[in-house]
Write a structure and sequence with these properties.
Belongs to the type-II 3-dehydroquinase family. Keywords: Amino-acid biosynthesis, Aromatic amino acid biosynthesis, Lyase. With about 140 residues, this protein is α/β, with parallel strands linked by helices. It has one domain: Rossmann fold (3-Layer(aba) Sandwich), CATH 3.40.50. Helices cover about 30% and strands about 20% of the residues. The protein is built from 5 helices and 5 strands; from the N terminus they run βααβαβαββα. Strand 3, helix 4 and strand 4 form a beta-alpha-beta unit. Helix 2 packs parallel to helix 5 and helix 3 runs parallel beside helix 4. The longest helix has 12 residues. The chain is globular. Bound molecules: 1,3,4-trihydroxy-5-OXO-cyclohexanecarboxylic acid. 1,3,4-trihydroxy-5-OXO-cyclohexanecarboxylic acid binds next to loops.
Length: about 140
Amino acid sequence: DNILIIHGPNLNLLGVREPEVYGGATLQDINRNLSELVENTEFKLDFFQSNAESALIERIQLTMNDGTSFIIINPAAYTHTSIAMRDAIAAVKLPFIEVHLSNIYSRESFRQHSYFSDLAIGVISGLGAKGYELALKYAMTY
Ligand code: DQA
């Protein structure tokens, strides 16, 4: 079973970017932790980060042919803007969990709408890096 972890724009800056909002862990820390969780299981992880909407859409489209069975995605700022990414994830019809490090409902009003949540199996928002871990544990039992 292949699980794809997608990180949207600016998440490559985790650790240095507003750590009071997003925490001190880097993206490498988060990915390493997730990799450890699937050691000695039948699950394989694939990681993808991009700052470009087109690259994210193309990666989502690839799941039609690459054996991915589940997606964990933090669309970052595209959460609130990208109908095109929403359409891509709807097209591939894979189950997914939407993760946000911060609690988007406790922040600016423009962050309080997501183009993904109504399509997601579930949403984790505000639990920091731990949210990815919880999402992965769920995906492994799905
Ligand atoms: C985020 C929340 C978004 O509003 C923001 O644009 C991000 C990160 C989060 O993980 O809390 O880049 O998705």
